[in-house]
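Appendix B, example 12.
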Amino acid sequence: MMDKRLVMIIAMVVLVFGAAACTRSLRPSADATATVGVVSEEIPASGTEVMGQIYLFATQTARSEQGITLEPETDKPEGSVPEAEATQPAENQEPEPETTQEVIPTELEVPPPVTEKPEEYTLQKGEFPYCIARRFDVNPNELLRVNNIPPGSTLQEGTTLAMPKSDRTYPGERKLREHPTAYNVQNGDTIYSIACLYGDVDPNAIAYVNGLEAPYELSVGQELQIP
């Protein structure tokens, strides 16, 4: 009777140590990763260490058959942001303003001076034959002769002058004043009389650079740019 009891005790001890060895071999390493999920390891309270070892052995055996592996939990610092969220741009972030290139206005183009003489020309307010001769670079004596005008005559506004056909040009300097420059309008001035003050200046060029439109009304003290 004693022999049978002794055999049973020895078999029980062998079983316990065998279960412990299996438990050690099946226990996952600290670097193991879970394929299904994290399962916490809890051993239910037991009256003896042997029952706890037997329960642990049965539990791990069942997990290994179901393909469940343990994953050690790692501590994450508080306030950490997942990588996907960290790389995602803020929704309310305002776009950077577009830089615009400053446009520099170009200088106003001045029409070229009149060089081709017309067949005839009608005098405007403030003009006279010698003024027209300088402007179109014609000989003033021929201009007077073609139009039968005595020297020293005063012509009225609206008088039409025929231009001489000869190629004789104005004798001497056509320009009476230096330009380009600025000019302050005096009482009785017109763009035509102002052009005559400079000799070779075209009144249409004065109107153009100053943004004037017909009938080219001027005011005393107004500053005009003379091209």
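Strands lie at 120-122, 160-162, 181-184, 223-226. Helices lie at 2-26, 49-66, 83-87, 129-136, 140-146, 191-198, 203-209.
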